[in-house]
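Entry: Carbon-nitrogen hydrolase family protein
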Amino acid sequence: MSGIRVCAVQYKLADIDGFDQFAFQVRHYVRNASEYGVQVILFPEFFTTQLLSIGDGTGAALPIGRLPEFTDAYIALFRSLAGEYGVHIIGGTHVVAAEGGKLNNAAHLFYPDGRVEKQAKLHMTPTEREEWNMSPGEGLEVFDTPFGTIAMLTCYDIEFPEIVRMARAKGADIIFCPSCTDDRHGFYRVRYCCHARAVENQVYIVTTGTVGSLRKVDFMRANFGQAAVISPNDIPFPPAGILTEGVMNDDMLVVADVDVRLLHDVRAAGSVTTWRDRRTDLYGDWS
């Protein structure tokens, strides 16, 4: 299969009272996406911090260290939805327990057959490191699917060209980039880097971010996000390299068809052939 339909969710954060409300909202997006015949659904980074707004019974939000307590329920929910709707779901990121009492911010890939794969974020922002006691993942994996090889690189990861080079060298044709940014500066850092990585590596980038607000949860009170499906800037793709994009900060889905064969065409005979023309005599060859 070379052509697939992907969906990215602009997930609207709002305070909730229990896990059932979270599950209801997630199911809504998956059911809606399935009506468009998509094969892959992407949720944003840190969208499960919504669970912290359930609170501790005193009116205060749960601390970030409590989020791993929801891991089993999170996995069960998304595994069930992937099977029920016959889709691959990248369940954004969820904070999981790591060695030494640390936390990982990990993207999860749910297959329709029940398999679950995980990729921890590799580059920590100062807030993740200093305020949330997060530790980075230790390696990059790519994942085989019926529609090609993919990688999951989260938000800040996309700002490091080397890691995307490595993903491409390992065979990834589509990079899924769940994100969470609180203002325009952060949003445009991620967005512009997505475009750069698509041009450099002649890959598709599917990205989305959180919108809305968690009024009780530290560092999640403001969100500025927009989903997009991004291509290389070459014929036969759109001139701006945007297959689709959402309405900024709105609660919505974006859907696009991507064709991996077109990537192979431009790599072989495009206006530019950036992957083939790398000067590996001057700098590293990640393959």
